[in-house]
Amino acid sequence: MGTSGGTSAGSAAAPCRFAHYFVICGIDTETGLEPDELAGENFEQSPLKRTFKSKVLARYPENVEWNPFDQDAVNMLCMPKGLSFRTQADQREPQFHSFIITKEDGSRTYGFVHTFYEEVTSPQICSAMQTLYQMHNAEQTNAASSSSSSSSSMDSLASSLDDGYSPTSSSSSSLSRAAGSYDSSRDTLYVSKALCLITPMPFMHACRRFLAQMHSAVIAATAPPLPLESYVYNILYEVPLPALGRSLKFHGIYESIVCQRPGPGELPLADFPLAEAFSLLGVENLVQVFTCTLLEMQILLYSQDYQRLMTVAEGITTLLFPFQWQHVYVPILPASLLHFLDAPVPYLMGLQSKEGTDRSKLELPQEANLCFVDIDNHSIELPEDFPQFPNKTEFIQELTEVLLSFGFSANTGAPPRTRSSPGSTSSTPGRERKSATLRQLEDDGRNGNLAGEELVVLELLQGNATLERLQALTKRTGVTVARVEALRAGVKGQPTDGGNQTGGEEEELRNAKLNVQLREVFASRFTTMFADYESFVIQSAPDLESWLTNREQMHNFDKASFLSDQPEPYLPFLSHFIETQMFATFIDNKIMSQWEEKEPMLHVFDTRIDKARLYNIRAPSLRSSCYQRCSILKESAQAIEQRLMKIDHTAIHPHLLDMKIGQGKYEQGFFPKLQTEVLNTGPSNNKWCHKATTAQRRKDRHRQQTEHLTLDNDLKEKYMQEARSLGKNLRQPKLSDLSPAVIAQTNWKFVEGLLKECRMKTKRMLVEKMGREAVELGHGEASITGLEENTLIASLCDLLERIWSHGLQVKQGKSALWSHLLHYQAREEMLAQQADSPAPRFLERRKSDSSIAMPSLRVSLIQDMRHIQSMSEIKTDVGRARAWIRLSLEKKLLSQHLKQLLSRQALTKKLYKRYAFLRCEEEKEQFLFHLLSLNAVDYFCFTSVFTTIMIPYRVVIIPIKKLSNAMTTSNPWVCVSGELGDSGIMQIPKNVLEMTFDCQNLGKLTTVQLGHDNAGLLAKWLVDCVMVRNEITGHTYRFPCGRWLGKGVDDGSLERVLIGELVLPSGEDDSARACRTPPLQRSPSQGRHISITSLTGRDTKLNSAQIQEGIGEAVNNIIKHFHKPEKERGSLTVLLCGENSLVAALEQFFHHGFKSARLFQKTVFVWDFVEKAVAYMESADQVGDLQETTEAMKMTCQSLCHYFNAINSTSRNIGKDGKFQLLVCLGARDRLLPQWLPLLVECPVILQMYEDTAMLRDPSTLNTLISVLETLHDFSITLEASLVKGINL
């Protein structure tokens, strides 16, 4: 603080000063005309149209300690296109725009710029311009003589088409005159000059008015009341920032200016007119762009007008409250910084469109994840398949009503801009379109330009690009707007210091009220959506230091539980949103708030949530998705109105300074050279400076006291920066330094960032998928929902697109990855043709999936591409790339395929610049390694998403050759079923054990029905298993059988329902297997079936305790199945009929103590026991023995007989075990099993067929079984069609 000289006096108050710098940019007459190569202008343009370098001519004060002056950035943003020249024939309306400089730590400084044209008095510059014109004309003449059509006339057309409006008629002679339009003897040359205020807070309206008055003073016929230095000094040193919740009035040159600042409980300051953003884009478009911003996509704003870029960018980021944009933010991208568009990170940037350039000519490095906002044409292009904002329709409705209540229509704004379809604009000639707008302007009371409030009209005219162009046009077409001219002449305007509001102030108040109400509607959406976010924040660290050091490993938010609490329609959006950096930072701030002061936005947000709880606005049922409107619109607007009506503080009036006489003489139309001495130091005895410094000292003291309690501040700051930059590695590129070294370093940061992001994403995908085991090993949360998996995979696709579009030489198509794949495909196919081989040879073969019969599927990147190319459902390149990634992930080939793709180095070199991620060898290897780790888990992300595509399947039937003939004389058939449907019955050609068929995606396969018609002599068939493979994804399922199909053998079955299990590719090594997801339920193994039917005597008998445990586990698995979200349940058939299933467990129970194998007699089955029991019941019923039983008992008896007969009389040739399986499944479905069991036990047949020790004959065991089975009654069980086909109940 105690430095001597200029800075100290000026800076004592800087933190609470309204403005930090006053800057003047323009032409440096010393260096003359320097073409601006970086702006990339071509020299075929006429010299007046070219870009020349501007300079910072002066800045006051020299430097401010806590906001060091960044000369390059300020110059670049004050005049993003460099200097522009005009002659007296051109339009020279002043322009206003704002800009923002984001420092590397994320803090922001605002700049407000008023650009006007000043006559060039330097003869050197005039003659330089003349020389350029002569050279240009000579070139044009040569070009014209050599080509049929002269480009100079085109060029002059361009210069007369200023701002893209066409002159209604123009003779060729005037065109040729315009072509060489500058001649120093005849024309006056003007050049742009910019006046700029740099402020710590975005008081846009106040700065705009101050600078406009400053310019008025320069062009007025008489000198201003005081020298300009007085006003500059006043705003730099004597006008404080308004205090929180207070308003402030200070004095411009001709009238006072009022600004206000929200209180600590209100939404933070935002002064850019939101109504304008809404009117430029339309409500729905703005909500869509807002959603893209929340999901951290790349957003590119495009407009001719810098102020529009700024208004939309600031508008959208303001609406994010309580969240903050965490990535690259450059609302005005200077021409020299176009390489930023290559950044493979989320960004929000604004690009100035050149006059007359078409969107289609704009070469953007990556568009897969780009939201392109064409502000001037009111149109947006959205990325493919992104989720909608919750309750979007009601939300848009509420915003529209707020706009209407202020007299704005929803699709157009205050200066009415008709929002037309793209075709209609071009068809209306300029004059008609404009005069229509003029009429509307004059008839339209909504504009606030009510009679008598002439100043506001002038302000409108000075600051509104549309109106300025309109006016120039009316001049050119001969229409004069007399009132406007008169206004401009008499702009001197008396100071309106009285109590009555001027039009300008009313307009401002209206804008401020509308702004805050629109923002409240957005904020209340978040208050509703995240009302309970605190319950899901995981506070695990004991202190800040340990939290910061372990930040990367820790889970801060219980995502799965949070999502399970949300209404279904919100999930697609929320599941993406809680993965973003802005949400992570928000939660980090929340956790850090237990150790340090709460971040202001978080404080406001938390207060609102508490208030809502107090009034219990939240509906009692959490999962309600009904829309809640914002309830505090009126009070938020009142707070602002009160502040603006009752001014809390008035700054010191501008006054004469102690200046040298005779300098800076007033000369109309020229901005004087200001006296540096008086402007570089501020006053030393300023009341509010002292207040501020004592407060600052207090803060410093407090900080020193707490410092030794927490960790050393520098270290802490380092930690904080690291913790905060987690995953967003590059917050803000430096605008000023453009040396190749810095650009290289920026790129290096991008590369490191991409690698880090890849590491984190793959780790998260692994941990989430590993489920239970991973949690036991101490990684994160337990469950991953299908929704969450989809979100993670979508974000992986997005990451790969960003990696592939980093450092592209030439962009082709919207998906950089797909474009690379196509290049690769074309090349391989060409090589294959040259080698005359039908397919590329280098591909490895995947080892056979099972030792028998199923031919191996070739691993081929090209083949996978062809599968995707043949899918008519996918219409775009981005979609194809995503489908290819999903397919490769499902096949566990993603890393291998990409390695293959990148192994063609010549191709990579041709497509990518040296600095591209894909050409950084070491990083690329690590990246492929991270992707390889995903092979440890099973994904079905292709099969489960593309549910309607046709898929080729291959079926192989494997008989047991040792015990039976391999072929059968009968006619076999097969039907394959999966979670999404079944193939229908397909005949298998005789004597063929393998067939392929095409069928709409069946999803994960569940069952295969296999049977034959028992024809011919060799009709008995012993089948080991059936193998089925999805020929696109390569997933192979094994359906074990291990039994006979044939009459008079085994249980006499001619068809069986087999339950599938996914086969592990044998190529997987043990390490991958050790950490894989638990396998799917298996189908009944051969062993069990053979033991049940006692074909051999090897069966290992289970004891009663094991059998009871088995039943408990089977029932438990079914209950767990129903507790999962519907989309993630998997196959119920497996739990009913597979290995360790309900049917298997009950078979064990019925087999306990069963006298089945008799010497020299055929095997007896459990079904035989049921059959006898039913026969006994039916006969007893006829004889009338059941008279004394209850009515309920009778009903149960009848139901059992009914079901038994339905199963026995089916047209299907099911064997006895198959029939028992059906009885159990139907009994479980219809909640009858527990009632049937006692009936079976009471039948006398049991004495002949069961030993005394059998579990079935032990009453207490039976009662336990019944109560276990009754727990299934809470769930509605639906049986797969393949099980119950042909049963009439």
UniProtKB/TrEMBL annotation:
Domain named UDENN: residues: 36-597
Pfam families: dDENN (PF03455), DENN (PF02141), PLAT (PF01477), RUN (PF02759), uDENN (PF03456)
One annotated Gene Ontology cellular component of this protein: membrane
Keyword Translocase: no
InterPro entries, per database record: cDENN_dom, dDENN_dom, DEN5A/B, DENN_C, PLAT/LH2_dom, PLAT/LH2_dom_sf, PLAT_RAB6IP1, Run_dom
Region Disordered, annotated ranges: 143-180, 410-447
Annotated localization: Membrane
GO molecular function: guanyl-nucleotide exchange factor activity; small GTPase binding
UniProt keyword terms in alphabetical order: Guanine-nucleotide releasing factor, Membrane, Repeat
Leader sequence residues: none
Sequence ranges assigned to domain PLAT in this UniProt record: 951-1059
Basic and acidic residues bias (residue ranges): 430-446
Domain RUN stretches: 787-947, 1133-1284
Compositionally skewed regions (Low complexity) per UniProt: 415-429
Family listed: Belongs to the RAB6IP1 family.
Listed name of the protein: DENN domain containing 5B
